[in-house]
Amino acid sequence: MTDIEDAEAMSQPTAAELQHQLIPMLQEIQERFGYIPSEAVGWLSQQLKVSSQEIFGVATFYNHFRLNPPGRHEIRVCLGTACHVGGGERLLDTIKEKLGIEPGETTEDERYSLERVACVGACALSPAVVIDDEVHGRMTQRSLKRLLDSLERQDKKSKKRE
Ligand code: FES
Predict the structure, then answer these.
(1) Do residues 41 and 56 lie in contact, with contact meaning Cβ atoms separated by under 8 Å?
(2) Which residues line ligand 1 (CB under 6 A)?
(3) Ligand 1: distance of its center to the CA of 125 in Å?
(4) Fold designation for 3-61
(5) Where are the domains of the chain?
(6) Residue 16 alpha carbon to ligand 1 centre in Å
(7) Where are the beta strands (DSSP E) in 26-93?
(8) Average pLDDT of the chain, as a whole number
(9) pLDDT tens digit string along 16-66?
(10) What is the pLDDT of residues 76-113, one digit of tens each?
(11) Lower Cβ count inside 10 Å, N or C end of the chain?
């Protein structure tokens, strides 16, 4: 290795240093835009002199970061221990099937986005789903489908009024 290559290797941040630098920057970007736009990843890549893949790696490791714009209705399925044991995965499957999206994605019409989260602080009501910041506890696949249908109806009504 030449001296220049040595110096370049030494100036590359370690994985821990990269996370330490990146997380507050990603948080700030998400607060501003509601998600992490790919243009921002490109900008960070230039600023920090690390690849976009490394930045995506950090952003996707933490559930907290969104890589897509949030939908009008944000759905969060709790998969903390109590909710997982109580059937949270089945609830997640129900939503994935109904909306045709995976966690971290937003429907094409930008109405719904889906996230999986760890404990939302309502373990006594597990399994829980949070829709637009409202916690819905003791959910079953059937009650969840009803809830999503009612959201759909409300949306249609408010669209007619517009
Ligand atoms: S594990 Fe779901 S609310 Fe605590």
Answers:
(1) yes
(2) 78, 80-83, 119-123, 126, 128
(3) 8
(4) Arc Repressor Mutant, subunit A (1.10.10)
(5) 3-61, 73-161
(6) 29
(7) 73-78
(8) 89
(9) 777 788 899 999 999 999 899 999 999 999 988 889 999 988 888 887 788
(10) 999 999 999 999 999 999 999 999 999 989 999 999 99
(11) C
